[in-house]
Amino acid sequence: MIATNNLKKLLYSLIVIITALACSSIKEIDNDWARDRNICKKLTGDVLVYTIFVSNKKLYPWDENEMKIYLDSVKTACNWIESEAKKNGISLNIKTIKHNKASLKGAPGKSNESAMKMLQSMQGLTKVNKHYDGISKKMKTSVVKQKTALKPYVKKIKGKQSFAAMLRNQHQCESVVLLFAHKRDKGGHIAFSLNTLNNSDIEYLVTSFDNPSMISYQILELFGAASLRHPNNPRKQSAIAEHVKKHFKDDIMANPMVSRIEEANIGDFTQYLIGWKNEYDPIHKILMKGKRVRVK
Amino acid sequence: MKNTLHYLAVILITISCSSSKEIDARWARNRGAGKMLKGKTVVYNIFVDTKTTLYWTGFDIKSTKDSLNKSAEWLEDQAKKNGQELDIEMMYYGTTVKPTFKKNIPYKHVYEAFSDGEFSKESKLNKWVTGILKKVNKTIKLPNGEKLPRKPKISAGEAIVKKIKKLRQADNVTINILVNNYYISDISAIFNAMSNEDTEFIITSGKNPYNMSTLLLSVYGAQSLADGAYNKYKIKNIQLAHTDFPNDIMVKYFNDINQAEINDYTAYLIGWKENIDTKYVDLFKIEPKKKLLNDSYK
Fold it and tell me: What's the predicted TM-score (pTM) here?
């Protein structure tokens, strides 16, 4: 009887796994794909970084002082990106704004750890996207209206994309970075930039890190920059690591946890991906290939 | 290169026949509502809200208008350089209170209509536009209650063109249907450019001045000289165009439109030059591809 039950369980688990595999697949996409796409196209002109603080109802609430300190880090990150742009002759003006009310919806899956686990499956990804749609939807009533908004306004906020459309209209800027700031919990940190390699939903970033280098790294990711730290193609991992070490040792995309952001820079390859340069040296082609993403 | 192809993807000239016979690109020269890109030219823009594309906000409309003006300025400047007189006026459907037209599009994305080369799908999109134009036509009034003659019966597109020609004393009128895709990459397309049966129009999905300029040029007969998967046509000796006209706007994508030019071949097709060197005769021979877009666009 016990053996039959176990067999049933095994068969049930197999069906679940097979269904999950049939619904999603892994596709290799060039890093070039993310260039000049989605809501954060080129990192030039006017950019809005809009921070929404997210906490649990009981655990880890944000207090005013913590939010202020966190926003200072966001500002430091943005100032550094602006100064890098200036060095490279790029006109860039980043406006940082905090949403005046924190969300109490917490992390997807109720903890940072389970949120990070959810990203490993297509079904989980959809849930994560819906979670932040839900947060955006609730934020509408507490948005500080700007006089600069032009008619027609966004009437209904259905999720992140209409919320971002409203912010674009209110602040009259092309690129909006939606930053959902969490606090570190028992399960550790949370950090991801979603939808940078697809067109089906708006790209945004979620983070619990408060160091300016990591915030800059994630902002750049939204504008198309590729991580030079964890090349996720094992076949090329060592070659990529060697190449990065040789050419982009101090690039922020290779050192997101650098203690002093002033010691980092934005290298040629990253500059190409974020739209500051029209071409990149073909010797860096190795860095372009092999990004593996889960697709429906 | 990939980025270049991505942008060239937005230039599609849709023909109203599904055969794959060889066509002569000169056929589109001096035909349709957009004959020669000279004189007073009106672009009639209609911002359309649909359920599947994103709703137009004030910012989207304003920034798209900025891009349209930039494109018009560039075209006028190129005309001047080629010794032609060109005055482009951007005209818009609707009012400041209600600047958009609402009609649900039959597809989630415009590219879906072209993904498998099925003409019936393209035709469905054509019908969607016809529905819009029928209603828009009723909103355009001629002064003093003047009306267009009842016979011969003309399509709504033709009626709009005739009315605007009268209203603005224009030589040419182009209808441009715009859908909002602020974070989605979709294609833009030209319909009826190679047909005499109906008025040509554009469906624009983005707000890049480069794309807008190439689309307008295509309406007036210019031919895409892009090499690769995204050109709807196979061109016999395309390399010749790349060698002789490397900076022509129809050859490749330009990040900054001010770096692009209109060279002899394109100038001939849009009516700015009377003759063209016989060595370019192979460039006129174009053949429609059966399957246009691959999955990489999704």
Answer: 0.86
